[in-house]
Amino acid sequence: MNEVPAKNILIVEDDDIMLKVVERILKREGYGVEIARDGKEALQKVQDNKYALIITDLMMPYANGFEIISKVNGNAEKRTPVIILSSLGNEDSIMEGFKMGADDFLRKPVMVGELVIRVKRLIDQNK
Amino acid sequence: MVLADYFFAPFFRRYFYYFDSYPIVIQIAILLTTIAVLATFSAYAVILYRRYAGNRHEKKLARINPDLDNYITENIILNEQLATGEPVNQIVLPMGIFEKSLYRRRWVQQATIDRIIHYRKNFGGEIGGLLKKLYIDLELDKVSFKRLKSVKWDKKVKALKELTAMDMSIADVNILPLTNSKNRELRSEARHAYIKLSKNEPFKFFDIVTEPLLMWDQLELFKIITTTKDISIPNFARWVTYSSNKSVVAFCLKLIVHYNQQQAIPAIEKLLDSKDHYLRENAINALGKLKAEDTENKLVSIYSNQPLTCQLEILKALGRMGTGNHLEFLRHEFLRSADFDVRKNAAKSIINHKADSASLLKELLDTATAENALILKHCMNPLIKY
């Protein structure tokens, strides 16, 4: 497994616009960012690299966000914090996400300032 | 067939001089085959044309969308004035890019509306406000309002979706008539828009609903009402008392239960005297879910005069209230009724009393017939819900 810089974040999102915009926002804040456009690509990246934080959507092709969270925190020695960024807002999805090991849940439409603060807080906590 | 013969028979007579010598069945078969072949080719032609048109549209969008994305990202999402706390209405957006003649074309205006809406679905707060400002500054709201006046229902639906997504106010005179439209989709979208956009009286259309709210409409409306933020929730007892539309009353009962409006109990209780079983059934269900213990005696007193559906709701309501005052009544129904559903619901309600019914349950298990014991065990299984 490649150890990537401490502030590297993986964004998993199938909406190209959202992906690019969140990538730009986080790069502007000084984070290193990698992107995955579907669950399969994300699972591959998670297997090959270690990230400081993962931001994932829930509904995606090939593998959904729950599978990614379960893979990330399933057998890792040190767990990786995960933020779910989804338009699914029903209680069941939120609860399921937290049960799987997500650290935070942001519902779309997202406020950029809030996203940046939550990312910073989780990365600082896990330093 | 006469028409087909009129069109095709001269052709066959000209090229197949022996066409008339065929039996009538063969002539009909030839005509039908010809029609089928022509229809197949026409269908392929339409599909190909649509694919070609779709592909051309995609290419046009691929030319325009990157510019729109760059503009929105640079000037709205990463807007520096916004980061310094400047109020949204005081931020002046650069409009240079939109002065090109290309941006006055109708399809480009539509692409811009779609793109702005896509961003607004993903980004809220002040960025959402700035996206709305861009929509208004580009006068795209006028495009949507103009479409709302179209005679075609699908264009009206699209306009309503756009205006709702951009949180634009629509005058009651324009939207209220649409909430009662004969077209199901338009009606549903107009109600959706009305609830989302009307901040003071989002349920005013309940007063004028003449068409029944279908179960699917109710599901959609329930989702919209319960997920829309900052909506002012009225006392739904108002419609329970005054509405002459049965489906509106039944829907309001569901909303009363969802919002636990205890103050609506007297209005619901009055429905127990209604001549309509459907309303009585829904009212009893709501009273049970609201745990309206003061109505328990009345429910038991009217039980014997009710149709089966209302009796079952009364049994369920007693189980939901779980006061223990009518355990003997439930026991009686469980042991004496010949109807399987009555026994099943009486048993479930006895079990729902938990500790209060422990001794009764033990007694019933010890003395029940094989079938009644089976019903009790079935109802005691926490995984089986009904």
Automatic annotation (TrEMBL), chain A:
Domain Response regulatory, chain residue ranges per copy: 8-123
GO BP annotations listed: phosphorelay signal transduction system
Signal peptide: none
Domain of life assignment: Bacteria
A GO MF term: DNA binding
Name of this chain's protein: DNA-binding response regulator
Residue positions where 4-aspartylphosphate is found in the record: 57
Keywords annotated in UniProt: DNA-binding, Phosphoprotein
InterPro entries named in the record: Bact_response_regulator, CheY-like_superfamily, Sig_transdc_resp-reg_receiver
Organism per entry: Deminuibacter soli
UniProtKB/TrEMBL annotation, chain B:
Keyword field: Membrane, Transmembrane, Transmembrane helix
Membrane-spanning segments: 24-49
Pfam families with a match to the protein in the record: HEAT_2
InterPro entries tied to this protein: ARM-like, ARM-type_fold
This protein's record includes keyword tRNA-binding: no
SUPFAM superfamilies for this protein: ARM repeat
Protein's recorded name: HEAT repeat domain-containing protein
Organism: Deminuibacter soli
